[in-house]
User: Which sequence fits this backbone?
């Protein structure tokens, strides 16, 4: 099973700042990584798939990069609605696995 | 627009079974599989499995495969997830999501509470 480790666990930033979230895989997963945003009481929302492709309707301030074992989600300038929990997910091998999440909170 | 609408909250006793439904609309149903993901209170996301709506092929998480069954009814555009021999740690919100590898639309979630 591919283990995804996200860091940091919690990130405290202010609106307008740049956020950088990391996801590391226990083995190479090519570019088969997705990122999701989840707000309290809501279902997750797909942001990025295949490491760097924005999903439909996702603002350009969200970008993804990486391949192999190291991946990054960047939010260029935080908006108030961006404070949430973010998960990475791999699809290179069964079973599909998720990272444990990074909580992005307002500083 | 694409929608996945799930059945309502359930309370079950340990050892019982639960069957959650997920009704799809707004897209060609047979073109996408349906996956199930659960989330225990205050915890992260756990993939449970996937079903091909096209041919009924399934792939389950190994730790659940003895207790879970996913089925689909193309006539009603509904997918079902049944979990048997419920335990206290099965208490979670259960989500269906469109897709087998990336999940672009999600249901609203169904809270399943296992309580004696």
Assistant:
């Amino acid at each position: 099973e591919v283990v995804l480790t996200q860091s940091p666990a919690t990130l405290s930033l202010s609106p307008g700042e740049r956020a950088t979230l990391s996801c590391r895989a226990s083995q190479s997963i090519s570019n088969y990584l997705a990122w999701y945003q989840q707000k309290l009481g809501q279902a997750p929302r797909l942001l990025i798939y295949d490491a760097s492709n924005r999903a439909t309707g996702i603002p350009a301030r969200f970008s993804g990069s990486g391949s192999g074992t190291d991946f990054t989600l960047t939010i260029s300038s935080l908006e108030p609605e961006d404070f949430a929990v973010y998960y990475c997910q791999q699809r290179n091998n069964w079973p599909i696995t998720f990272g444990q999440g990074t909580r992005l909170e307002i500083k | 627009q694409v929608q996945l609408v799930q059945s309502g909250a359930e309370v079950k006793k340990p050892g019982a079974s639960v069957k959650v439904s997920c009704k799809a609309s707004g897209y060609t149903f047979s073109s996408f599989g349906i996956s199930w993901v659960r989330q225990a209170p205050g915890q992260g996301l756990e993939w449970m499995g996937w079903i091909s709506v096209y041919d009924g092929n399934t792939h389950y998480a190994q730790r659940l495969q003895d207790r879970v069954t996913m089925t689909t009814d193309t006539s009603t555009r509904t997918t079902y997830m049944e979990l048997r021999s419920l335990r206290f740690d099965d208490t979670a919100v259960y989500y269906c999501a469109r897709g087998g590898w990336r999940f672009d639309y999600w249901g609203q979630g169904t809270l399943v509470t296992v309580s004696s």
Summary: The CA atoms of residues 92 and 102 of chain A lie 21 Å apart. Chain A has a mean pLDDT of 97.
